[in-house]
Amino acid sequence: MLLRFRVSLPDRPGVLGQVARAFGVLGADILQVTVLEREAGRAVDDFTVSWAGTLGVDELRERVSVVPGARVEGAWPTREVPGANPEYDLLGHIAADPERAYQTLVDAVPDLVSAEWAAALDAVSGEVAYASWAAPPAPVLGELPATRPVAVSDGPLHLIGVPIAEADLHLVVARAQGPAFHRVELDRVARLVEIVAMLARPASRTTPAQA
Fold first, then answer.
1. At what angle do helices 101-112 and 86-96 cross, to 10 degrees?
2. Alpha-carbon gap, residue 109 to 189, rounded angstroms
3. Is residue 130 within 8 Å of residue 106, measured between CB atoms?
């Protein structure tokens, strides 16, 4: 199975190697390391690992946390395959069929940030316009700013909210199994929405007389 570990660790030589050895001792194969931030003497990295052992995720967290100064901020299943380029695939599908741009975005974006589901809500009524397969029938969400991308937490549920002004929609991406969304993940989704909106614009501006 593929797992994502978010680890905060001291930003000094040798510590990353110690974390890698801890994963190796457990039989976990590190497939990818993504640096999310490096400041104030600490780093936050996402490790994508392939693991077929018998320990539970919580036990894995404890074993990695024995590295001096390391702190596991989250460990959760992921469907994001390291080395793949899912953004390119997504944008290719949208370019081929811009009329389904936002449905395609909603279906694909959870896997891009290791989330569980996504939905596009009507910006006025709040009703669900599009939803990914794992989304609840009527998601209950707190207040999300209507004018800017934001990452918030509502209890155990972590959310990204990105307004899509061109379509009068609001994209919501949700994760409950892992940690709160990092600003790098928020920026990734927000930038992707900008590009999708540009690709969808010709279809959305077609008038009945032009059809």
1. 170
2. 8
3. yes
Closest CA to 163 of 205, 203, 124, 137: 124
Rounded to an integer, what distance in angstroms lies between the CA atom of residue 161 and that of residue 143?
10
> Alpha-carbon distance 85 to 53, whole Å?
28
Angstrom distance (rounded) from CA 103 to CA 120: 8
**pLDDT digit string (tens) for 160-192?**
999 999 899 999 999 998 899 999 999 999 999
Q: What is the dihedral of CA 85, 88, 89, 92, to 10 degrees?
A: -170
Q: Which residues of 22-50 are buried (b: 16+ CB within 10 A; e: fewer)?
A: bbeeeebebeebeebeeeeeebbbbbbbe
Q: Are 163 and 102 in contact (CB under 8 A)?
A: no
Q: CA gyration radius for the chain? A: 19
